[in-house]
Amino acid sequence: MTEYRVIPWAEACAVHGAEWHAIGLERGLTPTLLPEWTRIIVETLTDPRAVRVLVGTDGARLVSLLPFHVRSDHVSRIPVRILEPISSVVSYHAQLVTRAEPDALLRALIKTRREIAWDIVRLAGVLLESPSALAIAAVARTEGLTLNEWPGEASPYVQLGATSEQLLASRDKRDRYRIRKHAKDFAATPGATERWYGPGDDMEALLQAILHVEAGSWKQAAGVAISADPRETEYCRRLLHWLAATDRLFANVYFVGAEPIAYNLSYTWNGTIGCMKGTYLQNFANLSLGHHAQDQQIFRFADAGGQECDFLGDAEPYKLGWTSTTRRHSDFFLYAPRGRGRLLGFAQRLRNRLRNSVGPDKVPG
């Protein structure tokens, strides 16, 4: 019989880290849900002192594990306490980490309200049609909880299983021309070089190249550059070192002379390349380096025997140039059965009924 309890973050890592990792491998979860990557998220993007872990054990055997924190926010100007898994801070294709059916873990999470004050549970970026997504809907029904679902990212992915030459030949004439032109334009740029990074390379030098490109890209003006946020910078630093140490780093940087002008950062995992971040300097926009860097990653990974390119993130045009096939995600909100959560849930049900009857564009607020 599985017993659930909430323990401190440090204890969970020390006692259950190895089995947590094993569950991730058994269930084919993405590496963002493993303890090593989760530790980087917790220690750079959250307050580790506020992170607790719901663990389910059967004797000495770990069955389920869910790291979470409770943060303060506002919904329609009403202060609320939101419980969210650490996977809601950062993850790709979020699912629940469990050897059993995820329903039991979710019910145990709901019961934490007896000892932890929260109004809403937010589970973000959950892979649709996964056991976790189905369990969220099922538990909401059986427990009589209000469930609100917001459509999330639709992440494109393309099957490889071919050489770069075969992949290029499979593209239509326009795509082949575009890919070749981008490569030719970069090669014709005076002082242009490409560098690939992996185990044994200088990760601090790679980080500085990434920060330089981010600071000179469109992301700086948009307020989303890694270089503009010390926490994001430290997260990136820690992640680069871990990916390189575990031989999962897949990164290319483009230079003109000594200046980095574009990069693409990915990880490799079970035959898949996960494309996380990339951009280019604005004054080199004419070279279409974002497209070129991504194309070259796909071709290099395909020639190494890779089976899939997972673009991660949302369905942006440059990704859809490769494929229209996507994995869909949603953000789920479960409202507490009592107190403020119950009132907010009641208001949300009324809003949903109004939206369904008159259409979302006619609902105020």
Task: Write a concise keyword list for the protein shown above.
365 residues; single chain; alpha+beta; 13-stranded mixed sheet; globular
Percent helix range: 40-55%
The mean pLDDT is: 92
Order of helices and strands: EHHEEEEHEHEHHEHHHEEEHEHEH
Gross morphology is: globular
Count of extended strands: 13
Kindly report how far apart the N and C termini lie: 46 Å
Question: What does the secondary structure layout of this molecule look like, with pairings?
Answer:
Elements: E1 3-8, H1 9-26, H2 35-45, E2 52-58, E3 61-75, E4 78-85, E5 97-98, H3 102-111, E6 120-127, H4 131-143, E7 147-159, H5 164-170, H6 173-187, E8 192-197, H7 203-215, H8 218-222, H9 230-245, E9 249-256, E10 259-269, E11 272-280, H10 289-303, E12 308-310, H11 317-320, E13 326-335, H12 339-358
Parallel strand pairs: 4-6, 11-12
Antiparallel strand pairs: 1-2, 2-3, 3-4, 3-5, 6-13, 7-12, 7-13, 8-9, 9-10, 10-11
Helix pairs in contact: 2-9, 3-4, 5-10, 6-10, 7-9
